[in-house]
Amino acid sequence: MRETERIGSLKGIGEKTEQLFNRVGVKNVGDILRYYPRGFEIFDDPVPIGSVEEGRVSTVAGSVFRRIQVSGNQRMRVTALYLKDLTGTLKVVWFRMPFLRNTLGKGGVIILRGRVVRKKEGLVMEHPEIYYPAIKYEEKLHTMQPVYPLTAGLTNNAVIKAVRQAISCVRVKTDILPEEMSVKYHFMPYEEAVRNMHFPEDKEYFAAARERFVFEEFLVFILSLRRLKETENRAKNSFIFADQEKIGKFLKALPYRLTDAQMKVWNEIKADMQGEHVMSRLVQGDVGSGKTVVAFLALLLSGLNGYQGALMAPTEVLARQHYENISDMLKDYNLPLKAELLTGSMTAAQKRSAYERIQSGEASIIIGTHALIQEKAVYKELALVVTDEQHRFGVRQREALAGKGTMPHILVMSATPIPRTLAIILYGDLDISVIDEMPKNRLPIKNCVVDTGYREKAYAFMKKQVAQGHQCYVICPMVEESESLDAENVMDYSQTLQEEMGDTVRVGYLHGKMKQKEKDEIMDAFGRNEIQILVSTTVVEVGIDVPNATVIMIENAERFGLAQLHQLRGRVGRGKHQSYCIFMSASKSDETKERLDILNHSNDGFFIAGEDLRLRGPGDLFGIRQSGILDFKVADVFQDAKTLKAASEEAGEILKDDPELEQPCHLELKKHIDSRIQKIMLETTL
Questions:
Q1: 322 and 346 in contact (C-beta within 8 Å)?
Q2: Which residues belong to any copy of the Helicase C-terminal domain (predicted)?
Q3: pLDDT of 146
Q4: Which H or E run includes 616?
């Protein structure tokens, strides 16, 4: 069997299961070999019941104490028992499994494995796996069982079976690394590495296999970016940008002075726009560092020179907010330019009149979503496109806009705090500027890390803030209740919180499964203070600016990465009022305490990124998942920084010796690079 054969050619995978695999990006047999687990269940010896800890998955052995009880209604039956050993007794519950009363009531030792949570009655193990008789657990003892990313209808067992079959059936597995590179870095042989990525003999074997594929991912990614940069980034600048006196007057009239870092970055952007080649620049700045005003200066330079500039936002709500802020600044500072809004939800008549003003050149600054580059949007002379990291502006958009006129300058704004040395490698197709200084008028956010026992006090504090006219966010890791995970969920939480807060406070909720229109309506209502407390998943990570929001409480903070927690915290502290961030953790582990302590004592995203890098180390099996352009399967830009640098150096050597990748040892690598370039182009298509 070849890697190119469709996944449905494996035994036991029918049409429906094939569609489920396709949904998670597995189209052929080669894809399943690279569909790596998101983690592993490591089956250690059972621990004494008296030593189980809140927030941890534990394995316990004991006998059933007292009667097994079944309670609840038809929709949700809860089975409860008490498990006892010589060190103590533990309450255990299962959802929708009433038949267990007959299965487990026969006596003998049973082994249970599940997450332990704290409830009013004390520690409880929720919905554990059952090993009865106990010998069933011994079969898994000291093994690492893969846990795969799934979609509704696709089970972990189905993926395991498909992977095992693919490993045994594929005769020639394609190694894309040149042989001398594998020898140089002492990489595990390819076939052995594939097997140990899925079914490792132990942690050491997995670490060795992972290192090989991390290097491969970085090498392909860096080579792809460098080849992209060579082909598209040297276009000649066909615009003439003269210095504008009105920009100097605008800066003097502002009620605050730009920081030295903002001025430095603005001068770099201006030099690019006045330079010989088309600008491709990334501006990195921490949450609240003032990137937007720098982008506005670039749009002013474009508009005041008679050209047009476009600002792309990830959501309609954010686009509208940018439009209102920019329109106000143009009016308040007597700047002779007109702003235009263009979004997908506008009526046909509204779009027609917007298109007319854009085509005639009456509109100098155009703000919107992906609607900005649709066919009907014709620009008089578009010279600058400002976009954000989520919508990296790629080859296809440039071609689309070049078709409308001349190749525009590109400015990408990023709030992801990546250490500069890594950013230079990762954003190889862009020049990099960093705003590493916060505006003087911003009050630092006050942080606190607490356990779940603090929740009542936190609610009282939020009530007080709402009574003073402010608003709050609550972040939960999940949308709905899960039988397998103990974590707060948006749907139940918002209902409980509404009951807690009473009728005078309106609680709203937001999550990624909602339609974009619903999300926009909720964020709009929150922006207008029609909703006082917003319960949300991480979908608010990139949201509108709500200066009136002064509190964010993050439930199950131990479940988020440091960088993501920092981004979430950036939703508050955007106005003149003191703001607060409450990190609520159900875990008592020293590791969690150390991680959250970093956020408790620092609001500096670049420092946090560096600490994240220090703490992760080789002990983590898998790193955080980056989104969009940095979406690696196993690699982590922080944890694997050394490997990233090594791959970057090797990429330089390869391109120096074989710029077109025509040597036989590079042909397989070239195929993957061409595929990755296509993926980057698709990811950057709005």
A1: no
A2: 454-614
A3: 92
A4: helix 605-616
Give the integer Cα–Cα distance in Å for 668 and 177: 8
**Cα-Cα-Cα-Cα dihedral sign, residues 507, 508, 510, 514:** positive
Positions of the chain with pLDDT under 50: 481-486, 617-629, 684-686
Closest-CA residue to 632 (of 644, 645, 620, 642) = 644
Write out the two tokens for 397.
Answer: 């958009």
Which pLDDT score is estimated for 172?
67
Predicted TM-score (pTM) of this structure: 0.64
Specify the pairing of strand 549-554 against strand 580-585: parallel
What is the structure's pLDDT at 587? 80
Non-local (6+) Cβ contacts of 152 within 8 A are none
Q: What is the rounded distance in angstroms from the CA atom of residue 588 to the CA atom of residue 585? A: 8
Q: Give the Cβ contact number of residue 309 at 10 Å.
A: 28
**What is the per-residue DSSP string for 351-375?**
HHHHHHHHHHT--SEEEESGGGGST
Residues in the chain: 686
Q: Label residue 573 left, alpha or beta by phi (over 0 means left) and psi (-120 to 50 means alpha).
A: left
Written as six digits, the tokens of 175 are 């190694």
> Residue 487 burial by CB count (10 A; 0-12/13-18/19+): exposed, middle or buried?
middle
Kindly report, residue by residue over 339-352, the tens digit of the pLDDT: 999 988 889 999 99
Residue 426, burial from CB neighbour count under 10 angstroms (0-12, 13-18, 19+) = buried
Residue with tokens 């197709």: 429
Of the candidates 576, 575, 540, the residue with the CA atom closest to the CA atom of residue 317: 540
- Cα–Cα dist 562/603, whole Å: 11
What is the C-alpha to C-alpha distance for residues 113 and 681, in angstroms, rounded to an integer?
44
